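step 4 of 6: structure.
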Amino acid sequence: MESFVYQMPTKFVFGEGRETEAGKYVKEFGGTKVLLHYGGQSAEKSGLLDRVGASLEKEGLTYIRLGGVKPNPKSPLIYEGIRICREEKVDFILAVGGGSVIDSAKAIGLGVVNEDDIWEYYSKKKEPKGMLPVGVVLTIAAAGSEGSNGSVVSFEREDGVYKRDCGGEFMRPKFSILNPALTETLPPYQTACGIVDMMAHVLERYFTNTSDVELTDNLAEAIMKTIIAEAPKVMENPEDYQARANLMWAGTFAHNDLCGMDRGQDWASHNLEHELSALYDCAHGAGLAVVMPAWMEYVTEHNVMRMARFAVNVFGCHMDFADPENTARAGIKALRSFWTSLGMPRTLEELGGKKEDIPTLLRMLEIEGRTLGDYVELNGEDCENIYKML
Ligand code: NZQ
Ligand code: ZN
């Protein structure tokens, strides 16, 4: 086990109807003037925005609405948000939505507090020093940004769309309100994308070279087994509150780093995927459903017993002691079948991509002269090989 410091400063407020307490928590964390940030239609149509707005007014808080965040949040709206916050002296950002809205809110918060263009931070040229406080009312169990220390944004630049992440402990939200009932209106495809993403967040940590991490390995397996058990219930009955609740909590724990702080983590699959959602604007979870099993096949040999353990402990595959690789392969097959059973794509073509784009994907990945991943360090040729497998 590696040495670590673990602090989870976000306050989680869980349960039905709790979004009506948003104003109380904004006040608790010092907000007086709020940017209420949200996405396209869903939060407006369901009446959620009005309920949250009323809770802010009840606490005597003033707020400005800024909607229109698109999936794979785009930089122009973020720059607009930064301008509004500066002009209006906003001191708190409340994100009502999923990963895209939360990440957009975090990016605005970075832009307001730091001097440089936020591109400098997302392109890792400079380190941000802080962020305006952000609170969350979560509407989809997926990205885990409600508890994570990161934000992922698509920057539209002259030579293409760069989807890049920025991280820092100060980027965890002050509070996150998790009402599972809010996720009942999700289209099945989005529910499924979220299920893939949260599982991938555990897997990026599960495949590690660090040994003697039994407690967190067992936690990781418990989270994955919970996801596998609850997913079919919500696909069958979108209004199954208890299953939605289990998935929502699993999604938060999948990515608040509880399962990762004691070990080396990989993240190559996420990096490979981000180029797909940048180029094709596909859902991040759908991209992962295609990339992650291919990555697992590509790296199986690195530690066959690790992959076999996943197969046995998570999917209940039979352990073939004579040929553990057989078991490892059965685990990858089970994962792929689970994700496709939810309606997720299997190939690049199903995502809307094509093999001719691989040189573009590699160029945007900026892989030359560096490697991706920690479990197995992938060079440019490895990345190309994996893209060719999709
Ligand atoms: O815009 P609206 O109308 O709200 O529609 C959204 C959107 O189209 C819809 N939706 C959300 N809640 C809904 C709903 N529709 C009906 N009812 C509801 N309750 O769902 C669609 C997808 O929303 P989005 O926020 O994009 O989904 P998700 O939470 O999966 O976020 C994906 C983004 O997060 C990034 C991804 O790369 C992607 O850009 N990630 C962020 C991470 C982080 N900050 O820690 C880590 C992740 O690995 C990931 O990279
Ligand atoms: Zn993810």
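step 5 of 6: annotate
 - The chain has a mean pLDDT of 97.
 - The domain at 187-389 is CATH 1.20.1090.10 (Dehydroquinate synthase-like, alpha domain).
step 6 of 6: archive
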